[in-house]
Input
Amino acid sequence: MSFCDAVQVTVSSIEDTLKICLNAIHLFGTQSSNYGSLAAAIIVAVLLFAIRELFIKAKNYSGIYYTLSTVEDTSYNPYREMRMFHTLVLFSDGYVISGTTEKTGDIDKVRPCEYEGSRKIRGVVSGRVERNYFGSSVMNLHIVEQGRYRESTSFMTIKVRRFRFFNRLNSGTFYSTAAKTKGSVLCGREPFKEHPIGCVPFQSIAESQSSNC
Output
């Protein structure tokens, strides 16, 4: 078979396939009011596509984020009610998320502390976006963080609200394998005012009492 004959056979096969598809659509449409249903389905599909591409944009999930995590439950009591501050640098195509994170400070029951320079605790972020058409979309973030003594894993679920008229913060929950810690998360594009500045040196009770004499 020559090249021209092969091309003709291929084109003829494509035409036959298209005719079969069009005949099937026509047969579906001629039954009762199926043409109206088909038109409605196409309109809905176009609207959903427009909503996804115009209002749920990929840039909504890329850039610099700041998180404030509050520990609500843990197997290590000194961590309870601790507030932890992270800076996340994320890149996303609207579905898959990758990036890095740095723990920049925390506030526990004893003292506030800011981590500067090499003292910042770095981590690697991966995740996915649940893009919902009508409700809030959700960022699911898996974070592997290199702690002082060992590596730990955290999982954050953050709801990304489409419209934020008064409160520009997103909220969610987190779980960490470090002391089975879990709690709530606030996430925004601006640093938190509560972030500690500097680090108060740790003092034992005896040292504190002697300094007050």
Remarks:
- The beta strands are 63-73, 83-92, 96-107, 112-114, 121-130, 137-146, 151-160, 170-176, 181-188.
- The domain at 58-188 is CATH 2.40.128.120 (Lipocalin).
- Confidence is low (pLDDT under 50) at residues 202-213.
- The two ends are 104 Å apart (CA to CA).
